[in-house]
Write a structure and sequence with these properties.
The protein is an alpha+beta fold. Helix content is 36%, strand content 18%. It has a 5-stranded antiparallel β-sheet, with no helix packed on it. α2 runs parallel beside α4.
């Protein structure tokens, strides 16, 4: 591959980003969705640039794909729900498919059901967040995360994702793909959307809980 040189645009700098399997790009430590099907197994790249507080995403041919408001902080997911939702797929089918990433499929489906009972309006987004974790993490890490979340009543997808990263880091492989942030469990009342990020505190909060169980 030839060396990449940024292309200067009239309102910002075009830079190339790789589209992830979850149809997202990572821009300055936050995730932004692109339409379903943008990702291709052989690898997909797009241009993106920041303009007046918005992230603009283009094909390599400079055709605008979508725009998003730029999120503050890090570790957030900015989703255009029309990008992520396959409206023809039933929630039960999504849960069944996602459960295939776990050894205990029935326990996983029951766990998803608990999340659905709490966040019915946003269940597709909740399942998407868990799927992102499932795509990235090793199977044993997912199984341990599921077990921890069930035992500790952590029925929110962002909590699942954050706990997964703590457990993955705890395995000592040094390859965890998620944000290396200090975190603690969220109060369920503070979660209004699936793509909110938990308040951050000391990572020992989770590690102590794990050690005690």
């Amino acid at each position: 591959m030839e060396p990449y040189l940024p292309l200067e645009g009239p309102a910002g700098t075009f830079e190339i980003y790789t589209v992830r399997k979850t149809n997202e790009i990572n821009f300055k430590s936050n995730y932004y969705s692109v339409p379903q099907g943008t990702y291709r197994p052989q690898g997909t790249e797009v241009y993106a640039k920041a303009t007046n507080g918005r992230l603009e995403i283009f094909t390599l041919g400079k055709t605008l794909i979508c725009t998003h408001p730029i999120a503050e902080g890090a570790g957030k997911t900015v989703i255009n729900t029309d990008h992520k939702r396959d409206k023809s797929q039933k929630i039960s089918d999504m849960m069944e498919s996602l459960s295939g990433y776990f050894t205990q499929k029935e326990a996983a489906i029951k766990y998803f059901g608990e999340i659905r009972s709490r966040y019915a309006r946003y269940i597709r987004d909740q399942l998407h967040v868990i799927r992102r974790s499932a795509v990235e993490a090793p199977g044993p890490v997912l199984d341990e995360t599921l077990d921890f979340c069930i035992r500790n009543s952590c029925f929110a997808a962002p909590e699942f994702e954050q706990i997964m990263y703590v457990i993955w880091d705890g395995h000592g492989n040094g390859e965890a793909g998620g944000p290396k942030t200090d975190i603690k469990p969220m109060d369920g009342q503070t979660l209004n959307r699936a793509n909110q990020t938990p308040e951050k505190s000391n990572m020992a909060d989770y590690e102590n809980i794990i050690d005690e169980n």
